[in-house]
């Protein structure tokens, strides 16, 4: 029996903390709102100002002092670049009140107030009598009101406080921070009064045993009376979401139930043909335990799965079969409401999208989702890593005797009690990136306790660090192509394009499974059309700032092009990251940050999906899942750029983490032109492919034949019905001499000036370190897109998001390209400075643009043309002179530019002076 408390409540705000001393619990409140919900969803709170007391670290404080943000600090035009901006903001105590009527047939029943999710601390009074305080961030707040609620009307008062008071989990924790869901105040999910029999089942935990195909059920039974009673238990197990011809017998047991809490244990055999739960077959059972005592009956049902998630060597095994975690984070990002959904419909939508992109795993970063997320993951087959709502860093530490220590123990126990039956709940950590001089000891105790206490899942101390002996698995940041702080020294930015590396040397030496922590973090340009989607409580004022800056620079017409071009580069970076993980022997998995955008920490547009989990238009789930899936063909390529006469050599392999081995699998390769014409192809020997990775399909050797023109090719590798691909470029081996009428120079010297003054043609190719600061020299130019963002990495390079060009421009006719960055641009970009063309002539349309950071939106160029005096000048910020015998892409780009300069099409439309050009140079 239950009473739904959803609907209209009365409320009062208590910004001065006077409510308890003034005994507001004895007063009636005048204003009303609707719950479940928050103050913000009810449009209640303060207007956002520059003095709003946010919850979350602000690394880049320039918003509060920089002149460029001055107009966004004016009343009526407040726009925050750090995160999404709520329509109203309130931090402090808020009081909620409702009159409830208890029916006569609840007399003698055990009555509980169930508040599914509060944010954050709750205190409850009934008719002015206090019932207690609870402060779980990840589980329901449940109050025993049996002695307070008799039949009739009662005034129920709840005070919610969303400040960090007695316990600080870390102000950046996604459980509380304005960086993500927002620091909301309210109550969401089910708000109920529940009535149970005086003797009732309070808790039911099911422990699967794969060896015996059975469940052991442990129940806590509460006898609220003062007399021992006999209890007859009946446990029934039935398929929940699949059909079975096997009859599962009901197990019965009779026990004496003493006053207070009683522990009951029953076991039920499922039979040899029992259905198992995993990502491919998420079979679920319903376990129903009924209790009959003299005059009363009580029951409790749970949905669970028969599965075993264990360590097997350096990998995980699900039901004895090796598995590889392909994961994304979920950081409590819900722009419509500012808080997580408590319905399975929305969580199923999210998890179907995750699986459509080839992923099988979600890590909940420093927060624990509601029950509905676990239920959705159970039904769809998604492995979850859940954390105790803490990022104990910056403002707090763990292991040092602070209140957070005891809180984490209590919270972990509440979480396991609430969600432990869910088969999707496979992994657990204290939280994220801890600080504390005694953290290792604290986390070792934490992991050892839970490993001994509950074997239904695996445990690690923390996401990121430290690596401790107690860990069942390690969740560390090392295996990735770009680390925090690596800047331009990472593999993707410092080494020519290749795909023959892996992370075997970055795994730990103890042989335990390693899951890489927060890989990727590759950014894309904002999608300004997304602004209109923020029609809930959080607004994309940050996007509005960036859009206005682009308008001020006269480039708003390029917004969509910047999005799509940078998106293509972002997808290329993620492909490189994920494939390297899949190539690594003995690796246990990865966790992306992120499949969708992270709106906080200075705006981290790291998703191929937006904050609503919607596509942005430059890569589909089908395309993404070619390189991220349970079966992925892989090619170890030493390079992507070739000259005629070179041999394409590739070791071709496959990662197979599907549900079964591939028997006599058919595989092969095809080399195609961009129009789909087959250049060459081959078949590999049919073979059995077990579950795992690094299984060699064969060697590919192909000599690039004589060609009159450069070509872009696509190498496709297939196994059965699965295809993956890589782009390659082949350039002529014979180098054409520079025509006499073109002067190629690294400097704007007297010879170059004379050539221009006489109406001649000059190719000025500069190179890295040649452009002045203020003219583009301050821009950190690299091949990859921005890592996380520049605001929160304190300006970590690169500062750019790839190139944008017109592939049909005649200057690029001999340098095959799409409109966006691909591997053939690595060389030019890696040997270049950016040039800020606004310092020359704002009307210049570059042949090849560089897409700048959305925070600065500078008009940057890699290649552009102008008239200078009587002459024509083509400026390449890339070095096209040095060591060209080892740089075929640079040689080919130079050849293409020189042929263009010889043609009648070389007619620059804008002009600059000699002095303006000279001012660019250091």
Automatic annotation (TrEMBL):
PANTHER family: BETA-GALACTOSIDASE (PTHR46323:SF2). It comes from the Bacteria. InterPro entries: Bact_Beta-galactosidase (IPR050347), Beta-gal/glucu_dom_sf (IPR036156), Galactose-bd-like_sf (IPR008979), GH (IPR017853), Glyco_hydro_2_cat (IPR006103), Glyco_hydro_2_N (IPR006104), Ig-like_fold (IPR013783), Ig-like_GH2 (IPR006102). Residues 199-297 form the Glycoside hydrolase family 2 immunoglobulin-like beta-sandwich domain. It catalyses: Hydrolysis of terminal non-reducing beta-D-galactose residues in beta-D-galactosides. GO terms for molecular function: beta-galactosidase activity. This is beta-galactosidase. It comes from Sunxiuqinia elliptica. Belongs to the glycosyl hydrolase 2 family. Keywords: Glycosidase, Hydrolase. Its EC number is 3.2.1.23. GO terms for biological process: lactose catabolic process. Residues 310-458 form the Glycoside hydrolase family 2 catalytic domain. SUPFAM superfamilies: (Trans)glycosidases, beta-Galactosidase/glucuronidase domain, Galactose-binding domain-like. GO terms for cellular component: beta-galactosidase complex. Residues 5-190 form the Glycosyl hydrolases family 2 sugar binding domain.
């Amino acid at each position: 029996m239950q009473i739904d408390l959803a609907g209209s409540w009365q409320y009062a705000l208590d910004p001065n903390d006077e409510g308890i001393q003034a005994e507001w619990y004895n007063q009636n409140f005048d204003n009303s709102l609707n719950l479940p919900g928050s103050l913000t969803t009810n449009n209640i709170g303060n207007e956002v100002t520059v003095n709003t007391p946010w919850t979350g670290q602000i690394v880049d404080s320039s918003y509060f002092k920089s002149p460029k943000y001055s107009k966004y600090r004016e009343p009526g035009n407040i726009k925050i670049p750090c995160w999404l901006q709520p329509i109203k903001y309130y931090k402090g105590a808020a009081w909620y009140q409702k009159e409830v009527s208890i029916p006569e047939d609840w007399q003698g029943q055990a009555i509980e107030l169930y508040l599914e999710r509060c944010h954050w601390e709750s205190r409850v009074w009934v008719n002015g009598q206090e019932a207690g305080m609870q402060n779980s961030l990840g589980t329901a707040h449940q109050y025993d009101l049996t002695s307070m609620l008799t039949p009739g009307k009662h005034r129920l008062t709840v005070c919610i406080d969303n400040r960090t008071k007695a316990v600080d989990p870390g102000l950046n924790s996604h459980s509380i921070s304005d960086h993500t869901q927002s620091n909301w105040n309210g109550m969401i999910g089910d708000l109920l009064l529940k009535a149970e029999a005086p003797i009732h089942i309070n808790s039911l935990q099911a422990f699967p045993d794969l060896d015996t195909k059975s469940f052991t059920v442990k129940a806590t039974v509460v006898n609220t009376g003062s007399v021992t009673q006999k209890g007859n238990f009946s446990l029934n197990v039935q398929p929940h979401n699949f059909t079975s011809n096997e009859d599962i017998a009901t197990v019965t047991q009779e026990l004496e139930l003493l006053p207070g809490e009683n522990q009951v244990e029953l076991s039920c055999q499922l039979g040899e043909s029992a259905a198992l739960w995993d990502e491919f077959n998420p079979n679920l059972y319903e376990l129903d335990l009924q209790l009959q005592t003299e005059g009363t009956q009580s029951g409790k049902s749970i949905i669970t799965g028969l599965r075993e998630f264990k360590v097997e060597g350096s990998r995980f095994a699900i039901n004895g079969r090796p598995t590889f975690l392909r994961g994304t984070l979920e950081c409590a990002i819900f722009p419509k409401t500012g808080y997580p959904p408590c319905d399975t419909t929305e969580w199923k939508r999210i998890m179907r999208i995750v699986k459509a992109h080839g992923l099988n795993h979600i890590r909940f970063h420093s927060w624990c989702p509601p029950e509905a997320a676990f239920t959705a993951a159970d039904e769809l087959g998604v492995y979850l890593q859940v954390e105790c709502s803490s990022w104990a860093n910056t403002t707090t530490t763990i292991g040092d005797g602070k209140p957070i220590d005891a809180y984490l123990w209590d919270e972990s126990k509440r979480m396991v009690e609430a969600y432990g039956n869910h088969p999707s709940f496979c992994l657990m950590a204290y939280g994220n990136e801890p600080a504390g001089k005694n953290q290792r000891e604290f986390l070792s105790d934490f992991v050892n306790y839970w490993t001994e206490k509950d074997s239904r899942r695996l445990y690690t101390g923390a996401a990121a660090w430290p690596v401790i002996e107690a860990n069942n698995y390690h969740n560390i940041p090392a295996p990735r192509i770009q680390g925090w702080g690596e800047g331009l020294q990472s593999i993707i930015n410092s080494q020519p394009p290749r795909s023959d590396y892996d992370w075997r040397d970055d795994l730990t030496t103890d042989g335990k499974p390693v899951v890489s922590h927060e890989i990727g973090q590759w950014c894309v340009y904002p999608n300004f059309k997304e602004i209109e989607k923020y029609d809930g409580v959080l607004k994309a004022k940050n996007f509005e700032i960036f859009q206005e800056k682009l308008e001020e620079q006269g480039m708003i017409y390029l917004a969509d092009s910047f999005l799509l071009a940078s998106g293509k580069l972002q997808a290329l970076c993620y492909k490189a990251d994920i494939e390297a993980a899949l190539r690594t022997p003995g690796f246990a998995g990865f966790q992306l940050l992120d499949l969708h955008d992270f709106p906080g920490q200075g705006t981290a547009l790291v998703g191929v999906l937006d904050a609503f989990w919607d596509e942005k238009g430059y890569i589909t789930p089908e395309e993404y899942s070619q390189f991220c899936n349970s079966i992925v063909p892989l090619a170890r390529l030493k390079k992507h750029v070739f000259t005629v006469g070179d041999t394409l050599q590739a070791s071709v392999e496959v990662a197979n983490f599907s549900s079964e081995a591939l028997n006599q699998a058919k595989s092969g390769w095809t080399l195609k032109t961009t129009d789909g014409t087959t250049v060459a192809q081959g078949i590999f020997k049919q073979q059995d492919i077990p579950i795992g990775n690094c299984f060699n399909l064969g060697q590919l050797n192909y000599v690039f034949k004589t060609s009159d023109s450069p070509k872009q090719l696509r190498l496709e590798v297939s196994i059965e019905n699965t295809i993956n691909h890589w782009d390659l470029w082949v350039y002529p081996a014979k180098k054409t001499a520079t025509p006499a009428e073109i002067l190629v120079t690294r400097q704007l010297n007297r010879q170059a000036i004379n050539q221009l003054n006489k109406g001649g043609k000059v190719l000025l190719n500069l190179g890295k370190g040649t452009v002045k600061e203020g003219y583009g020299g301050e821009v950190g130019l690299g091949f990859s897109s921005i890592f996380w963002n520049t605001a929160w990495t304190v300006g970590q390079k690169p500062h750019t998001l790839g190139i944008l060009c017109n592939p049909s421009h005649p200057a690029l006719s001999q340098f095959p390209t799409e409109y966006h960055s691909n591997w053939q641009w690595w060389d030019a970009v890696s040997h270049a400075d950016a040039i800020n063309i606004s310092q020359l002539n704002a009307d210049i349309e570059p042949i090849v643009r560089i897409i700048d950071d959305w925070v600065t939106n500078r008009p940057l160029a890699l290649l552009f043309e102008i008239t200078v005096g009587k002459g024509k000048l083509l400026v390449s910020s890339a070095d096209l002179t040095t060591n060209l015998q080892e740089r075929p892409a640079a040689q080919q780009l130079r050849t293409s530019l020189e042929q263009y300069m010889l043609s009648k099409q070389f007619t620059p439309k804008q002009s600059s002076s000699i002095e303006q050009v000279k001012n660019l140079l250091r």
